[in-house]
Amino acid sequence: MMLKRFLAVLVAVVTVMMSVTLHIFRDQVFVLSEFIRLDKHEELQGRSVSPRVNIERPQGTSTQPQAATEESIGQVLKKRVEHLAQVCRRPGVKHSGFLDIGTVGLTTPFRVCVVPKGGSTAWRAYMNTLKHIPKSQDYPKILVARHPLARLASVYRDKFLEGYPLFAFNKTFKKITGSRQRWNTRWTSYWLPALIHKGLVNPSPDFFEYLTKKVVDDNNLRNGTQKLLKVSKLRILDTAVRSWYSNAEHIKLMRRFYNASFSMIDFLEHVLWTRDLGMEDRHWAPVNELCKTCVTDYKFILHLENPEETKYVLNPLHLHKTTVPRRHISLGTSQELSDLRYYENVPKGLMIKIIDMYKMDLELFGYDKDCI
Length: 372
Prior knowledge:
It is a single-pass type II membrane protein. Belongs to the sulfotransferase 2 family. This is Carbohydrate sulfotransferase. Keywords: Carbohydrate metabolism, Glycoprotein, Golgi apparatus, Membrane, Signal-anchor, Transferase, Transmembrane, Transmembrane helix. It is a single chain. The protein has 372 residues and is mostly helical. The protein has one domain (51-365). Helices cover 52% and strands 6% of the residues. The protein is built from 14 helices and six strands. The strands form two sheets. The protein has a four-stranded mixed sheet with strand order 2-3-4-5. It is globular, with a radius of gyration of 24 Å. 30% of the residues are buried.
C-alpha cells in the first residue's frame, strides 16, 4: 500500500516537472521563432525600403585654423594642449571622469583615448595592427576629439537610423553599414528606452525606482570599486530595460512599434533625458568625461576632422606605414551635405541645452559651437 502511494506521488511529481519544463521550452521556442520571424520580415521590408547609404566624412570646424605644413600643424597641436591646460586650471572646472573600460582606452603600444562615434572603430583596427610592438613610456598619450554636434549626428544616423522606421534595420542595412548588432540589441539598448522617454511605453514606478537606486553619487567616488560602479552607470538603463520586461512583453512591444521612427528632435531630447538620469550612453557621453581629460597628461589632442594631425603625430613614431582608416559607413541621404542639416529644425531652447551639455568639450578641444 505504501509502495503504491509512493509511486503515485512520484508519478505526480515527475508529471509536474515535465509540464514545467515543457512550458519553459515552449516559451523559449516562441521567443526564438519570433526573432526569426522578425529577421525574415526585415529581409522582406529591406526589398521595398532601401535607405541610401553614404561614406561618412568626419566633419567639424575648429576655432583654430587647419594647418597645411608640418610646422604649422605642430604649432596648432601645441597651442591646443596649452589651451586645454589653461581651461583645466580654471576655478570650478570638474577634474573627474572615467575611462569606459574596454571601449575607449587603447593601450597597445601607446595610450589613445578615442570615444565611440569619435573614430574608435578605425583606431581600434589600427592599434590591432601594432600588437607586436611592446608598450613604451616613451610613446605619447593621445586623445582624439570630434565636434560634439557632428558626433551626435553620427549617432543619430547609425543607432536611430536617421529617422527611418525601425524595420529598416535589416540584413541589407547591416551588410552595407558593417553593423554587427542584432535587432533586439538595438531594441533594448536604444529604441525601447527612447520609447519610454517619449511616453509611448509606460513602465511602472518601480522601474524608475530601480534606476534611482542604481545611480552612484559622484561625490562618493573615493575608490576603485566605486569608480567601476560609476562606469556601470552607462549600462544601467540598458540592463533595466532587458530585465524589467519579460520575453513575451518584449515581443509584444516589438510588434507594436516595428514601424516606429525617431526624429532628430526625439533623439536630442532622449540624450538630455539620459543625461538627467545620470545614465547617458557612451556613444554620446562627453569626451572630456570619458577620457578624464583634466587629470591625464595628454601630449596630443587630435581632431578627427583633420587627418593630417594624425600623420604628423605618427610619423616620428615610425608607425605611419599602417594608415589609420578614415572612412566609416553610416546611414545618410547625401555625402555632400553638412551635419549641420540635422539641426535645422531643432528648437532654439533644445539646442541651447545640447550646447550646454557639451560646452566643456567645445571649450577644451577648441571647437566652434556654431559650425560643424
